[in-house]
């Protein structure tokens, strides 16, 4: 279900293969998981692969990129927590992998297989649920005020990229198992192309910093260009 076809065509294909209710749910969950992978990839491209990239970003705009780091990171944890969450909250239906189980009752074998994968995904996402409950969706006051009651107020554990990768992999397993059953295909969530992404930005930042260095050298020598004295305005 990939290639150059539109999102509407992809959705229609899932509905044709799975039926309307399951197909619509699967299409929505698949889209959500795709965006989760895209956002996490931007985070890792900028901050998780090479220290030299982090140094480059700190040289360019350290405050801004610290905020970018936190936004991508926290958004990924929230997205994981949402997708493994309960089918309903306060009487309102949620987009979650747990909703698949109620739509697979006609195929007990598949329902049991997906149920095991859903439980694995939920278990792998416990770190995200803790962060959502104590820091992201709500602010644990005792945690914020750093009250030293370790038995009553356990610290919020740090999260490693490996935990995020494992959780995303478990979510992929749920959706790909269903897609293989109905469509004889899977989706390469972890490898889908993202042109104009964070890596493209890194090249522009590196070029800009080189230009800034050259400008400083010209100014120190008293040999400025006109653009050094009157740089173009920020659009």
Summarize the structure.
The chain is mainly α and 235 residues long. The chain contains eleven helices and two strands; from the N terminus they run ααααββααααααα.
How would you characterize the overall build of this protein?
The mean pLDDT is 91. The protein has helices spanning 7-18, 20-47, 51-60, 62-83, 99-102, 108-124, 126-136, 141-144, 161-183, 198-221, 226-229, and strands spanning 88-89, 92-93. The chain folds into two domains: 7-146 and 157-193, no CATH class; 195-235. The chain has a two-stranded antiparallel ribbon with strand order 1-2. The protein is mainly alpha-helical.
Overall pLDDT: 91
Order of helices and strands: HHHHEEHHHHHHH
Structural class: mainly alpha
| Helical proportion, percent range | 55-70%
Cα separation of the termini: 40 Å
- The biggest beta sheet, please? 2 strands, antiparallel
Q: Roughly how many Å is the radius of gyration?
A: 23 Å
> What is the overall shape?
globular
Specify the number of helices: 11
Number of strands: 2
Beta-sheet strand percentage?
Answer: under 5%
What labels describe this entry?
mainly alpha, 2 domains, 11 helices
Secondary-structure map:
Layout (H helix, E strand, L loop, with lengths): L6 H12 L1 H28 L3 H10 L1 H22 L4 E2 L2 E2 L5 H4 L5 H17 L1 H11 L4 H4 L16 H23 L14 H24 L4 H4 L6
Antiparallel strand pairs: 1-2
Helix pairs in contact: 1-2, 2-4, 2-9, 3-4, 3-10, 4-7, 4-9, 6-9
